[in-house]
Here is the input.
Amino acid sequence: MMVPRPLKRPWSSPKWLLYLLVGMVLMGIFLRLSNLEQKPYWLDETYTLLRVSGYPAKDVVQDLYTGQMIHAGDFGKYQSLAAPKPAIFTITGLAQEEPQHPPLYFLLARLWSQGLGSSKLAMRGLSVIGSLLAFPAIYWLCLELFATPLVGWFAMALLATSPVMLRYAQEVRQYGLWFALLLIACALLLRSLRKPTAITWSLYTLTVIIALYCHLLTLLVMAAHGLYVLIMERFRPTRSLQTYAVSITVSLVIFSPWLWLVWRNQAVVLHTTQWARQSFPLELFLLGLGTHLSNAFWAWHLSYSPIVIYAVIPAIALIGYALYFLCRHTPPRIWLFVLLLLGTTTLPFLLADVFLGGKRSLSERYFLVVYGALYLAVAYLLACRTNPKAHPKRSKLWQLGTVLLLSSSLASCITATFSPTWWGWSEFDVEIAEIVHQVPQPLVISDMPLGSVMPIASQLHPNVAMILLDELQPEQRDRLKIPTGFSHIFLYQPTRELLKTMQAQDYEPKEVYSFQDPGTTLQVSLYQLGS
Here is the structure.
């Protein structure tokens, strides 16, 4: 492959704009480190803590879903290393109950927790540190792709002020680290093709292996890399293509033990991801896609309001023009790389949703590399259009537009950082916990699955009494007797069967809280029993 030269542009930018970019990067880092303990754990995060503890979900259900009174604090054993099982149980728990999640991040989180504890600050701190690697990674990727540092600074500023990137940088999951690893792998691939050495190819192989053991969807990025090398080498068995083939073969062989576990337990994978295959109204599906695009730049906590459409329109316009500009003004080695990253990681989900039904494409955490590719295109657009040497008059307007884009994105991030929750982060559990805590002696009863109960349990005071009923054991409902001594009795997300049971015992359930997301089918309710 030919060595890329700097694109034939008089790259330049006003000093004040460069200072602005640096300031945005610093603010983005600051916000990632801010308010880590404020926001509640949501479902996925509580499962991370469960895996770190080593306890399988079936043990928690067996111990706590008994129909007898427990306390919210009893979940602490399964959400920390207070009484942990050996580390091997972290791996076996994933293999048996969530094989779609490779174990690397969870083992890192366990090791981290052993040293720094299991507080929100500690656990989210690990995710933040992993996500910070994305800044030098995307800068390096821009150097390899565009051969100019200016695009790299724009890309880092876009990354720093991205609400969706900020959210997943603070989540107790693997996504922030995984995104950084993918950027590093992309940069190493371009470096290996530009200056092939044993060291660069070895580092690329190692990074791909680590990324695979961080998330299974690394396979889609590998497909993008493979297509890129094939096309750029014109389908000829060149040395670069042969070396790449060896690299990928080694990566897949080393990852094959976990692939075998996924294949062996594919029924478990289908069961635990059945939410993604649930039918979804077309109107809400399209609104969800547009919302995810706008979240790349703005997220005003309006995911539950139709007003979000006003952020979707400029986001789509900016992204569309940036991709057009990239394809129009760069050689194939640049625009092809970006488009392949977009296509191979997006089309499989979109096609599956269109032809098989479901909402796989609405899980934005799976598409962080897509956001990264979009930032590359937008960064190149802004670096070119704000260049005063290219278009002195027009550049002023683009400079103003850049300031508005970055400042509004930053304002969105600041608002989200200091809000009680992120969008989709169990905001209803925060409000329900406030209702429960207003009474002196509450009792909370629920027959919801473990994943729905763990987040609310983490929000309740440890001494709040609870009774949990296993939905697979209906006889528990039939034997349920409400203990005395409680001032208020609440039903958390009760099923129809539980409501009928309460009515049969001469109780009158009254809904005191209701949450419904108009953008999805999510409904959450809290009932209070009266007699």
